[in-house]
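Practice problem: EKC/KEOPS complex subunit BUD32
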Amino acid sequence: MASASQYLLQSGSLIKQGAEAKVYVLDHFYPEPTTFTPPSYTLSSASSSQPGPSVILKYRFPKTYRHPTLDATLTRTRLNFEARALARCTRGGVTVPKVLWVDENAGVLGMERIEGWSIREVLGGGAEGEAQEEDETERDSEAPSNDQVQEAEGAEYSEGMEALEKAGVDKKGLMSAIGAALARLHATNIIHGDLTTSNMMARLTPHHPSEPFEIVLIDFGLSSTAQFPEHFAVDLYVLERAFASTHPQSEALYAGVLEAYAKGLGDKKWKPIEAKLKEVRLRGRKRDMTG
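Answer key — structure tokens:
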């Protein structure tokens, strides 16, 4: 007999697939009710029923290359840890998707759907799934002219950045907010494990005039607990590489992230992480040189 989570998966739309999980969106958590009214009766908008909110379903599908018992144990462990990490982040003041339910048997995590824009899109890196297509077309294309470059830069000015600027937010403020969010995350002793601009979202908060937007961290599937400065340094280095590969000439932007991060943590915690980050960078450069 299919579980409720499996039924919801069948009703949802696949939006992303990785090595460990598939992500579905369900437009309405509750089905839109069917109402029958007499022809002479007018249903007011105030009393009309509305469908439930949209949700995200993260499905850790079975891995056929693993023994079924081991696979079920690993899936259950990782699913529960991700849910606990999200709850811990919430308690620590980190804005993350709300956990709606955890179905261990089906391997499904139900979460709030975040209405906003990924930082990748906001900074002109394109939507998810575009990187591979760009790589394939670039190999067969000629070098663009100055006019083509300017036209592309104009196209990259995203809807998200335009909305943020209308709310009084510039790129410097955006980077500061990212750094502050990461400082709060690491203060909970949780590392994300896959910090990229695709796993951060900007969401407008019109009901809070003093804070017109917030940064929401998503996809904690590779998260873990951390104890040592190097753990946090590696997390930051992953994001640094993501900025460099997805957003060329973004050194100043990432510097703004680190500045706000250091301010949020305070010198006592930041200094050892900064020292380790320099070591991690050096190791990364050596690997790049030796292949």
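Discussion: The chain is about 45% helix and 15% strand. Students who identified this feature from the tokens alone can consider the problem solved.
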